[in-house]
Amino acid sequence: MIAGQMTFVYSAWGVTAFAVGGYAVSVIRRGKKLSNQVPAEKRRWL
Fold first, then answer.
1. Residue 14 has pLDDT above 70, yes or no
2. FRET label pair with 43: which of 11, 22, 31, 37, CA 20 to 30 Å apart?
3. Could you give the 3-state DSSP secondary structure of residue 16?
4. φ, ψ for residue 16 (rounded to 5)?
5. CA-to-CA distance for 37 and 41, rounded, in angstroms?
6. Phi-psi category of 6—alpha, beta or left, where left has phi over 0 and alpha has psi -120 to 50?
7. What is the gyration radius of the CA atoms in the chain, in angstroms?
8. What's the angle, vertex CA 25, arms to CA 45 and CA 44, rounded to 5?
9. What is the pTM (predicted TM-score) of this model?
10. CA–CA dist 39, 11 (Å, integer)
């Protein structure tokens, strides 16, 4: 009984990891895209 339930637990962890990873990739890509639009003299992190 527990083995069958663990399949759902592992599946949920996998879906969650995939969703969080996908969101992280999209945030990084968007940040890089937006950072290219900022003039060099206005960049505060470099």
1. yes
2. 22
3. helix
4. -65, -45
5. 12
6. alpha
7. 19
8. 10
9. 0.71
10. 44
- Tell me the C-alpha to C-alpha distance, in Å, between residue 11 and each of 5, 6, 14, 27: 10, 8, 5, 24
Q: Is 37 exposed, middle or buried (0-12, 13-18, 19+ CB in 10 A)?
A: exposed
Distance of CA 44 to the CA centre of its chain: 24
Tokens in use for 46?
A: 């470099």
Amino acid at 16: T
* H helix intervals, the chain: 2-35
Tokens of 45: 């992190």
